[in-house]
Amino acid sequence: MYRFLSSIISFAVFFIVSVAIAGEHFVPITSYRTGPYGVSGAPAADGYVDYLKMVNARDGGVGGVKVAWEECETAYKPDRFVECYERLKNKGEAGATVFQPLGTGLTYSVIDRLAADKMPLITMGYGRTDASDGTVFPWVFPLMANYWSISTAKIKFIGEQEGGMDKLKGLKIANVYHDSAYGKETLPVLLKQSEKYGFELKGFPVAHPGLDQKATWLNVRRYKPDYVILRGWGVMNQTAIKEAARARIPANKLVGVIWSCSELDTIPAGKAAKGYNCSSLINPGSNYKVFDDILKYVYDAGEGTGDKEDVGHQQNYKMGVLMGIMTVASIEKATEKYGNKPMSGEQVRWGIENLDFNKAKLQEMGIDGLIPPFKVSCSDHEGSAPVKFQRWNGEAFEAASDWISTDQSIVRPMIVASAAGYAKEKGLTPRCN
Amino acid sequence: MFYREAGQFKTSYKKDQAILPIFQDKIAMVAMLLFCFIVIPLFANDYWLASILVPFLALSLAALGLNVLTGYAGQISLGTAAFMAVGAFASFNLQVRIPEIPFLVAFLWGGLCAAGVGILFGLPSLRIKGFYLAVATLAAQFFIEWLFTHFDWFTNYSTSGVITAPPMTLLGFAIDNPLSKYFLVLSIVVICAFFVRNLARSEIGRAWMAVRDMDIAAEAIGINLMKTKLLAFGVSSFLCGLAGALWAYVVLGTVEPQAFDIARSFEILFMVVIGGLGSVSGAFLGAGFMILLPILLNNLGSLITGGTISTETIAHIEYMVFGAFIIFFLIVEPNGLARLWQIGKEKLRLWPFPY
Question: What is the pTM of this model?
Answer without folding.
Answer: 0.85
